[in-house]
């Protein structure tokens, strides 16, 4: 994994490397029974070089704890490995910008390489970007969240692919939701389905 991680540091597969501080590669045990895929690193992750260490990571930690999934059993990564942002005219806070389909496509070889090395049994897509990266552009979180699906055939993985994939909302949607409690309970219900699968 270290060699892969080092190689990703020099990735110029799309233009996002130009403004980001660094490539934020996945982190966690290898192999791992469970892999979570987010969208892209946020401001804090970009600075610290680790996935899910900011506010969305706080929600993820809490939901894993509440669902009884040990955090150290999970490998955490993102569909896109560089932070994409815009700078507002005033103020210095960098504002997250959704990656384009082309940027997600450019980053996909890193994701399939991680899947090959980590060999998870179960994959959880957090949010629409991760779900579309794995399950195709027609996938709708609103329609199919929390449903256990067979992992799709991906040529690079051959027969050694994960058993199941489940998509749910992104933890940052909980942070932004008008009714945070309801949004959190929805996320927890989906992650409890994952916990059942692991047992
Ligand atoms: N949001 C993500 O999708 N990934 C991170 O690593 C942090 C925030």
How would the blueprint of this fold be written?
Elements: H1 2-9, E1 34-38, H2 43-48, H3 55-67, E2 74-78, E3 85-86, E4 95-96, H4 101-118, E5 122-126, H5 128-135, H6 141-144, E6 149-150, E7 164-168, H7 171-176, H8 180-198
Parallel strand pairs: 1-2, 1-5, 5-7
Antiparallel strand pairs: 3-4, 6-7
Helix pairs in contact: 3-8
The structure holds uracil.
How would you portray this structure in words?
The structure is a single chain. The strands form two sheets. A five-stranded mixed beta sheet has the order 2-1-5-7-6, sandwiched between helices. Strands 3-4 form a two-stranded antiparallel sheet. The protein has a single domain (about 1-199), classed as Uracil-DNA Glycosylase, subunit E (3-Layer(aba) Sandwich), CATH 3.40.470.10. It starts with a helix and ends with a helix. The chain contains eight helices and seven strands. The chain is α/β, with parallel strands linked by helices. It has helices at about 1-10, 45-50, 55-65, 100-120, 130-135, 140-145, 170-175, 180-199, and strands at about 35-40, 75-80, 85, 95, 120-125, 150, 165-170. The mean pLDDT is about 95. The longest helix has 19 residues, at about 180-199. The structure holds uracil (URA).
């Amino acid at each position: 994994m270290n060699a892969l991680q080092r190689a990703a540091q020099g990735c110029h597969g799309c233009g996002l490397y130009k403004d980001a501080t660094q490539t934020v590669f996945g982190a966690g045990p290898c192999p791992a029974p469970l892999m979570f895929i987010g969208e892209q690193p946020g401001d804090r992750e970009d600075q610290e070089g680790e996935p899910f260490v900011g506010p969305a990571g706080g929600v993820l930690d809490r939901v894993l704890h509440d669902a009884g999934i040990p955090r150290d059993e999970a490998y955490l990564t993102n569909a896109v490995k560089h932070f994409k942002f815009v700078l507002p005219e005033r103020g210095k806070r960098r504002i997250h910008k959704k990656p384009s389909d082309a940027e997600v496509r450019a980053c996909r070889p890193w994701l399939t390489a991680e899947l090959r090395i980590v060999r998870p049994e179960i994959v959880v897509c957090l949010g629409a970007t991760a779900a579309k990266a794995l399950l195709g552009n027609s996938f709708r979180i609103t329609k199919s969240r929390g449903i256990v699906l067979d992992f799709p055939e991906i040529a690079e993985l051959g027969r050694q692919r994960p058993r199941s994939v489940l998509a749910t909302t992104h933890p940052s949607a909980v942070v932004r939701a008008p009714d945070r409690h309801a949004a959190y309970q929805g996320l927890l219900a989906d992650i409890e389905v994952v916990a059942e699968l692991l047992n």
